Amino acid sequence: MVVGILGAAVLLSVVTVLLSVRASHRVNHVPLAASPRPVTVEAAASTQYRDSRSYVGAVAPWIEASVGPQFISAYVLTVGVRPGAPVSKGEVLATLDCADPSAATRAAEMQSKAVDARMRAAMDEAARIASMLDGGFVSPNESEQKSAVGASEQAQLQAAKANLVRASLDVRDCVLRAPFDGEVATRTFDPGAFVHPGASIVSVVDRSTVRVTVDAPEKDFGALAPGTVVRIEVLATGATISAPISRRAPKADPRTRTIHFEVDVADPDRRFPVDTTALVHVDVGAAVPATAVPLYAATLESGKARLFVVDGDVAHARTLPILGESAGELYLPPAALAPGTNVVVEGRELLSDGDPVRARVQAEQPDAGSGDEGGSPIRGGGYGRPL
Questions:
Q1: Predicted confidence (pLDDT) per residue in 335-387, tens digit
Q2: Torsion of CA 187, 188, 193, 197, to 10 degrees
């Protein structure tokens, strides 16, 4: 019995020692701060960089007119067009109820005829009296009075003709015609509505040529000379076109300190809707060598980029100047960051300067734009310039 107890005690002691040894081997004696951080790196690429500017502009029609009465207030009788309808110059767009202006025109015409008859009679009488001056049958005073009456009637005739012209303008205001070839853009009133002078019943636009209008900061005045080719993205259709700047204002807007410029784009097929948004990109200067890294690999502060580069198995923090950024890539001077340098793109949030790392090279993503035609290696930016 004693032997059994002693054997059990010895066995328990052996098991305890083995378990203690096993547990001691599982303890990590290396400090956690000294263990390598897993990170993903990507080699910086050699490319070229060309600075650019981007602005938000508007697509405007070449000509636009609001058609409505200018002299009279009246009820709308007919509106013969709706938005999108093509119209020709002189085509009737709408008519107004013009009973009163028509009556006033006829009254002015009759008054003009009456004054004309009185004027002719007065002038003839003055001529007859003037012929009797030589025989002494009438006095000079009487002749002058008759001539004055004739001149007064002539002045009244001119006033009556002016009233007739004004009345005729009111009548012409009753039939509203298209001022040029174009398309109906808006229809504001329907038959039965009462309109006042200055009201727009329909509007007409000419889209055979559209104007892309932009207001740019005054410091970009030198980069926006007429003839400079710009790239235009029409957001409404997704089309991208290139065209030269047609005109540039010689002065800035005193309120916003911006320079206005326009780009004329021929559109015979009328593809682009007007009063829509356009993004205008202008290249500035010449292309220069650059080193490109992903934008998410750096933190931008005060015109500089802070990132981590991997040298061997150690990460080093670097603060570098920036050339620009565009399309998710950051461009740095090759003298500041040599092409081929491994840059940390994932895992940099927990890194400090001099930390050991275990780097994994990020798999290259296929270029969606690659193909037989190829693309230009020049890339543009405009760092810090919001659209």
A1: 999 999 999 998 888 888 888 888 888 765 544 443 333 333 344 444 333 33
A2: -110
175-225 pLDDT per residue, tens: 899 999 999 999 999 999 999 988 999 999 999 999 999 999 999 999 999
Q: What are the residue boundaries of the structural domains of the chain, listed by start?
A: 37-49+288-380, 55-62+208-283, 99-172
Quickly name the fold that domain 55-62+208-283 has: Elongation Factor Tu (Ef-tu); domain 3 (2.40.30)
Helix and strand numbers (H, E) in the chain are 3, 24
Q: How many other β-carbons are positioned within 10 Å of the β-carbon of residue 101?
A: 21
**Reported pTM:** 0.61
Amino acid at 174: C
Cβ-based neighbour number of residue 343 at 10 Å: 24
| C-alpha 143 chain-centroid distance | 74
Rounded-to-integer distance, Cα 301 and Cα 294, Å = 16
Distance of CA 383 to the CA centre of its chain: 20
In this model, does residue 62 exceed pLDDT 90?
Answer: yes
**CB burial string 307-340: b at 16+ within 10 A, e below:** bbbbeeeebeebebebbbbbeebbbbeeeebeee
